[in-house]
């Protein structure tokens, strides 16, 4: 009975575009450090939050994983608004030679995530498309070196750790069922920016010897304008806008991470 089960698991991994990782026999032996930005800190879940402006949520996938696996140690260093520089200048201090597992989502803020969304919300289609294209140029030309520096720092501090790099979802279902909000032209442009970011991040993670988890497949059908959305649209408090809600963390990111760590 075990071989068919393994086949089903392998098919599931292929369906969500995940790379297989081996795992230690005992998750309780893990020394886990969660790095990254607001998509890892859990901003968007409605809280409760800790860490001041870092907005670390009890509903974020790192905390959920730690709760369910009871690792030997867990350091939640991810911080809302973080860029690669923030990871290099402060978050990597949470790593050590004894760290066995690291997760990270990073790069969206470097690429101007907030400014892209602001431009697309307040301006017409042309301005939105142009701003997205600027972001994509940055992602392709400048971000790779920043990711390389960040990943190298992680390897230097925790050379024996397994590192899982988690990507970002597409924001919109296009065409969508939303009767108000951004046009389909803007939605498609924003999605193209997410695609560019995923492609570059996957390449640099592979070059570093890390595992990249492509969130886009598992998120399909749960974008803004889908009936079962895992992502906030414009909401209050405004900083929670365009971030995964609790279902996005528990139903999207957490299962994707579990699949990446559990399959063998």
UniProtKB/TrEMBL annotation:
Keywords for the protein's UniProt record, in alphabetical order: Hydrolase, Signal
This protein's record includes keyword Protease: no
Pfam families reported in the protein's UniProt record: Lipase_GDSL_2
Residues making up the signal peptide according to the UniProt record: 1-27
GO MF entries: hydrolase activity
Domain SGNH hydrolase-type esterase: 34-249
PANTHER family: LIPASE 2, SGNH HYDROLASE-TYPE ESTERASE DOMAIN-CONTAINING PROTEIN
Listed name of the protein: SGNH/GDSL hydrolase family protein
Originating species: Kibdelosporangium philippinense
């Amino acid at each position: 009975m075990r071989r068919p089960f393994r086949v089903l698991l392998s098919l599931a991994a292929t369906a969500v575009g995940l790379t297989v990782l081996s795992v230690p026999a005992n998750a309780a032996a893990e020394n886990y450090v969660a790095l990254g930005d607001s998509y890892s800190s859990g901003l968007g879940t409605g809280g409760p939050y800790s860490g001041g402006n870092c907005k670390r949520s009890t509903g974020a996938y790192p905390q959920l994983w730690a709760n369910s696996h009871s690792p030997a140690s867990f350091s939640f260093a991810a911080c809302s608004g973080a860029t690669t520089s923030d990871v290099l200048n402060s978050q990597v201090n949470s790593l050590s030679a004894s760290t066995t597992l690291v997760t990270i989502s990073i790069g969206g803020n470097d690429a101007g995530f907030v400014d892209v969304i602001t431009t697309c919300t307040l301006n017409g289609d042309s301005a939105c498309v142009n701003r997205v294209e600027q972001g994509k140029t940055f992602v392709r030309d400048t971000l790779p070196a920043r990711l390389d520096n960040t990943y190298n720092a992680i390897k230097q501090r925790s050379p024996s750790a397994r590192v899982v790099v988690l990507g970002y979802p597409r924001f919109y279902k296009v065409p969508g069922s939303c009767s108000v909000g951004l046009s389909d032209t803007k939605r498609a442009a924003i999605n193209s920016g997410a695609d560019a970011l995923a492609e570059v991040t996957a390449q640099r993670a592979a070059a570093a010897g890390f595992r990249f988890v492509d969130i886009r497949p598992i998120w399909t059908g749960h974008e803004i304008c889908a009936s079962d959305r895992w992502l906030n649209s414009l909401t209050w408090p405004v900083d929670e806008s365009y971030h995964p809600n609790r279902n996005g963390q528990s139903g999207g990111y957490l299962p994707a991470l579990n699949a990446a760590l559990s399959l063998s």
